[in-house]
Amino acid sequence: MDKAAYVLLGVVLGVILNAIKEWWFQRGKNRKELEYLAIRISCMLDTFAYEASNVVADDGLCEGRQGSDGCRSIQVEKPIFDPLSIEVEWKSLPTELMYEVLNFPNLVEAANHRISAAFMFSALPPDYEEGFEERQFQYAGLGLKAHALSEKLRRIGNLPSMSTPESEEWNPIQCMQEKVAEIKNVRERRAAKHRALMEKLESNSDKTKSSSRDER
User: Fold this and answer.
1) How many CA atoms lie within 13 A of 115 on its CB side?
2) What pLDDT band is residue 134 in, cutting at 50, 70 and 90?
């Protein structure tokens, strides 16, 4: 091998080694950016989940009593989740998970619209029962969704899973799960009663029509 070949080989090896070095450096940088994103956003989601559980526990009473007007009113402010308020490298996330996180504020907005509609069109004073039921149901679902997203980010960032200490008597995640199940059960029973009533009214209507025809 002549001198020119050695020089060329040295140049090629230099380019390859430099490319490997750059790749390794970028790989480590991307990993750090992903870990930072996972830490920041999972903490935001955990905060949202805890605050959502407080909304779920809000029954409209202040220290067990109604307001001065004799009505129930919202005692706990709704939580806010604004992921774009933090500067992180979003493209370091898998596409599907990035969409889930960035779309979460839209789910919150949709839930708030449903709650507003329930208070406006279904709930009546002094208890506003349907409004508080919808608010608890929606925020229990949002809190559980936030918790699930947080766990996904923790797994991707190799972070420890969030766990509630055994010494704590109150588990917000469990409380929200129980509230969702409770309200679903109430709504199923309510729907069953409504169906039974409609069937009874329809049956009575058929009997009345039949009796009218017989009289003729």
Assistant:
1) 20
2) very high
